[in-house]
Every structure is written in C-alpha cells, then in structure tokens.
Amino acid sequence: MFQVLKKSLFLLLILAFAGCNAYQKVAYMQEAGAYAEFSDSIQAPIPDPVIKIGDVLMITINTTTPEAALPFNLPLVPAGETSRTYSGGNNTYLSYGMSMQNYLVDAEGYITFPVIGKIKAAGMTKTALTNYIKEAICPQYITEEPIVLIRFANFKVSV
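Above: the chain sequence. Below: its structure as tokens.
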C-alpha cells in the first residue's frame, strides 16, 4: 500500500513540474502593441461587384419630389403576381403583401429600364451603372440630381 502511494505521489510531482516553464519561454502578448496595430486601416477594400448575365437587380430612383422619379421606378405588384416582371425578373417581396419588381440581366447582358430603354449592364460595376443611369436621367428628364440605388437581389459569393 505504501509503495502504491509512493509511486502515485512521484507521478503526481512529475506531472506538476512538467507543466512549469520558464517565464521567458512562454509566449505572452505583453508587447503586442509594439509589433502589431489592430485598426480598421488593415482591412482590404471591398471591390465593387461586376454585373453579370443572369443577375437580378433591384433599382430604385429617388428625388426630393417623388412624382419626378415615378416614371423611372417599376410599379409595386401584389405578392405572388409574376406576370408584370420585366425581362423575366424575379420579385422582391415586401412585408405588406406587395413586391418590388426587379431587372434580370438577359442573355445578351441588357436590362430594359423605363423611359431610358435598353442598357448594357453586364460588365459594368454597380457604381458605373449608377452613374450611367444618373447621367441618362438628369437633366434630360429630371432637373434635380436623383439618388440611384442598385442592389443585387440574387447576390452570391463564391470562394
């Protein structure tokens, strides 16, 4: 019995000392501030997505006078009604039973935009398409500069 207790105590001491290490050998983050700065400036800029064939875009035009932007926005349709979609687009459903109509980039890369007509959207970035629509609308159709919002209704990220 005494021998078993002696061996157990010996093993316990070996395990206790095996976990100890010299202070200098342990990697602590004591001087991390001197070697690395953690800030927002380290993040890489997010590239503007390029519009491709098959993308579904939700485009809205806003102005301080809503009546001026009305001809450029697709009408709301009751949820579930798909007969009024433009270029075969999908609908984005809103919480009150209405849905916004979207623009499908067709096989040739075009969308059909109200008043302006066909726009070659494939290959453009969101920013480029926003600027193109702004320049096509203002000042020819609207006197004030419009706010053009473009969102991908079917945005996917592949890694």
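Residues 2-42 form one domain.
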